[in-house]
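Hello support,

Our group uses your service weekly, and this is the first time we've seen a run hang past the timeout. The protein is Pirin-like protein. I'm not sure whether the cause is the sequence or the server load. Input pasted verbatim:
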Amino acid sequence: MSNVERDPAETVCGGVATAAEPEVELLEPREVPLGGPRAMTVGRTLPNRNRRMVGAWCFADFYGPVGIAGQAGMQVPPHPHIGLQTVSWLLDGEVLHRDSLGSRALVRPGELNLMTAGSGISHSEESPAEHSPVLHGVQLWVALSGDQRAVGAHFEQHVDLPVLSAAGGAATVLMGRLDGAVSPAKTYTPLLGAEVAVGGADFLLPLEPNFEHAVLALRDGLTVDGRPVATGTMLYLGRGRRDISFGGPSTALLLGGTPFEEQIVMWWNFVGRDHDEIARARLDWEAAREAADPGSRFGAVLGYDGPPLAAPALPNVALRPRGRRR
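Update from on-call engineer: The timeout came from a worker crash unrelated to the input. Re-ran successfully.
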């Protein structure tokens, strides 16, 4: 998914904070229109005002459930990415993915679509012409570490993911490892992403104590360690925890990872390390977009009915890398 804001603020993140971190911090979403004035709205919890990342997770958009019967639904034109992985996960509906590698895949509930940008890729996302009446899901980004940022772009779709079941609920492991269950998805830093379906109270899951963790509520009725968490809100849980207790019935996304020690700059759809890297990527995209050049760094997305997104103007001051917390 693209950050389609026409005047995107510089997002600075990465680096271990020097001050002690709070054990619990509630991250409220901000509303962002996904496209033009009549586009659907998403709730963005990462990056947040003070906390930019959870492990390598650097971006989290939550949308729906929204009724799209008789409407276009999601329509995100071709746009570029560098330095990250995009993670698409649905609870209801379908999203058609196309990318400059020639991939064409329909995202469905319970199936993971993972795109690794490396040094450059472009893709589009749209509700197919024949779509379900409700769309509900999340889009996340994972920052690539410095030694992996030039990895070759690739796309994965995983329809058979490991599930941990116990009294009170089940957890589907999207990325990384949870209590011995390992996702087949390719990762580049130690991290965890899991959908937690809570049937009742006291669904207990073990955690990796070296990770920091957060929980994003996807449906009403969620409690985390006895604390209510509203839909679309993320509860940051800090580090050092060995388990977590969910209450419901509800659905949530559990995110975790080792704190991301590198300083990074995130602007528009790019994750880089300094202003020059971002500026080069922007120029390369604009040249590729205007020429429709499939041999460019970002390639070309075939089959989407409409022009690619134009990159917004860079700010008048240099983009600066800073720590992952403000």
